[in-house]
Design a protein that fits this description.
This protein is an alpha+beta fold. The chain is 19% helix and 23% strand. The N terminus is likely disordered.
Length: 212
C-alpha cells in the first residue's frame, strides 16, 4: 500500500534537509553568487576600502581574483583598478607600495583623472567585518593589466590575472616562489608569459618574467 505524505510534512522534511546542508557546510552554504551579484559585491568592497580614489576596470576578464594571498586562512581579493583621485582621497590606513623591479619608491599619479593609471587594489580578508589590510600596488611594469587601452580590446582584456594556488596543481615546469606565504597572483605580461606577484610576510614582491 502506497503511503501518502502530507504537504506540511513534506515541507518540514525539506526544511530539515536544508538545515543539515547548512550546518555541515554543504552546497547551500557555499553556493556561489550570481555573476552580477558577485561583481556588485566586489565593487562595493572596493568602495568601502578605498573610498572614491579608485574604480574597478571591469573591461578586463576577469578584473579581480580571490585567494589566500597572505596565508592566514581568510579569503583575500585583488582588483584591477584605475586611480581616479589624488592620494589624499584614500583612507589613511591604506598602504601604498611599489613591488615592481624591487623598487620601494612610490610615484603616485599627479593628475589621476587624466592619466588613466591602473593599479592593483588588494584587500586581505575582504569578506570579514574588518579587513586585515588594504593595499594599493602602483608602479611601472610590463604587465597587461596596467595598460588602460587593453581593457577595451576583446583579446587584450582576457586572462590578465590568474591564480597559482599554494596547495593546488601547477602547470608543468611552473615553480612556486620560495618566500611566498600564500597563493600567488599571476600577472600576464606584454611578452606573453606570466609574472608572479606574492606576499612574503612583510610586503608584496613581483618577479620579472624570464626573457625580459
Amino acid at each position: 500500500m502506497k503511503t501518502l505524505v502530507s504537504p506540511g510534512r513534506r515541507a518540514a522534511v525539506l526544511s530539515l534537509a536544508c538545515l543539515l546542508f547548512i550546518v555541515r557546510g554543504g552546497p547551500l552554504l557555499s553556493a556561489p553568487l550570481e555573476p552580477g551579484a558577485e561583481s556588485a559585491a566586489v565593487t562595493e568592497a572596493l568602495q568601502a576600502s578605498f573610498a572614491s580614489a579608485t574604480e574597478a576596470v571591469t573591461g578586463f576578464k576577469p578584473f579581480y581574483l580571490t585567494g589566500d594571498f597572505n596565508g592566514d586562512g581568510a579569503q583575500d581579493i585583488a582588483i584591477v583598478v584605475r586611480i581616479k583621485a589624488p592620494r589624499t582621497a584614500l583612507p589613511r590606513d591604506v598602504r601604498i607600495m611599489n613591488p615592481f623591479y624591487n623598487s620601494p619608491k612610490v610615484k603616485f599619479p599627479v593628475n589621476p583623472a587624466a592619466e588613466n593609471k591602473l593599479a592593483l587594489a588588494i584587500i586581505h580578508g575582504w569578506k570579514t567585518p574588518q579587513p586585515a589590510a588594504r593595499l594599493l600596488l602602483v608602479g611601472e611594469a610590463p604587465v597587461v593589466a596596467f595598460v588602460y587601452d587593453n581593457a577595451s580590446d576583446p583579446e587584450g582584456a582576457k586572462n590578465v590575472i590568474q591564480l597559482m594556488s599554494r596547495s593546488g596543481k601547477r602547470r608543468k615546469g611552473q615553480t612556486f616562489p620560495r618566500t611566498a606565504k600564500g597563493d600567488v597572483i599571476l600577472l600576464g605580461t606584454e611578452v606573453g608569459s606570466d609574472s608572479p606577484l606574492y606576499w612574503n610576510g612583510k610586503t608584496y614582491r613581483w618577479e620579472e618574467p624570464e626573457g625580459d
